Amino acid sequence: MKKDLISMDDLTLDEIKIYLEVARRIEAMPLPERLRVLPGKIMASLFFEPSTRTRLSFESAMHRLGGSVIGFADQGATSVSKGETLSDTIQTIENYVDIIVMRHPGEGTARRAAELTDLPVINAGDGSNQHPTQTLLDLYTIEKDLGRIEGITMAFVGDLKYSRTVHSLVRALMKFNVTEFYLVAPEALRLPGYFMMNDQPGRYRFIETESLEEAIAKCDILYMTRIQRERFPDLLEYEKVKDSYVLSHSMLASAKADLRVLHPLPRVNEISTDVDHTRFAGYFPQTRNGVIMRQAILSMHLGGRI
Amino acid sequence: MSTDKNVMLIPKIESGIVIDHIPAGFGVRILEIISHYTQVTDTIISLGLNYQSQRLGRKDLIKLQVEYLDPEIIQHISIVVPGVTVKAIKNFAVQNKVVVQPPHEIRNLLHCKNPKCISTTEQAIETHFKMVDPASKKVKCVYCERIFDLHELKLKQVF
Q: Which of A25, A244, B6, B150 is 20 to 30 A from B19 in CA distance terms?
């Protein structure tokens, strides 16, 4: 298998299915047995940019497989703040650990890091480019919730321009023969055209609409995203669009019975709390799946016994 | 008679490289590119402009007294003017010829346009693009994975 996990574009459909299968096996494993998967292994958790869920779920995943974690959650406390290059940082840290998990605002940083070291590198988010571990856990969640991925109808809502989660998931779903996508976004945050590019014109339908209700009535998965303040160079532009789409319980009246609402979290106000306790809410189980999928990833890239 | 006239303008070479079928107007641009590579520093080079061409109407051509052209130079030409023909001449005859195709990969020649791309912010990285759609000349940065039109990317060195 591949040494690194950098981009969903690097993975074939069969390789993605292996990650899903290993996650299923991990979930079925009793907790004490999981602790024997990666004993003695050390994970570097290099977060050059703030993160709660991704970092903590990776760290939790590693601890629960019997391994340990070193790293940082803020580059201000490291030599990077003294001007150290990425190359020097990686070539230093590789002496301390068995695997590197990194998040960085620079796009392409994980791929660069992978070139610099023989250790496996896992991309935990590089700017607005890729976030493959989130995509894999999203696929795992969809498969668990609906019992299938192929042929479903997806709706993406909110920031489709800057959201790396959306970008990665769209490309991955296309590999699973998902052909119908509702894209609900304000004009300034529409999905860039090159994510819809493919070599089979006419096979995929991307329906761009500003009507959330239209998408709710048609889709199996309603994937909500936060409008990301930190990605806007101009805060006035952010103020214009920040409250564009807010999902409430009453809007789900026309939804299919088994529709699931997913969200990579954190949310701000785009999903009202009155949705949380409905059968549609899938976003908290989604975070639980995050630990399971990250255990699958760590064990696969470190040769753990599953 | 017109062919003989051309021969008088630029003599046939006994051996060397001819870059032919250059669309009129691009001859000077290609000459400018190749003249910056050390391989051709002391080489005799002839440039012909605005020759009649059945295929192009008007064409430019360049003759160089070198045995071969560095792949780097051909890569560079393929980005600026794909479709030209490079002919190897020996004993006044064409030994070999290739039509320069748009490249599949472009290494360390173009700047990525994305200011957040690691290849623009970190020193000592060779840029690397892959052609994703030769028909529309769209290339993808291997690092940040953004897709660009080839013509919108600037060359790394200022030629």
A: B150
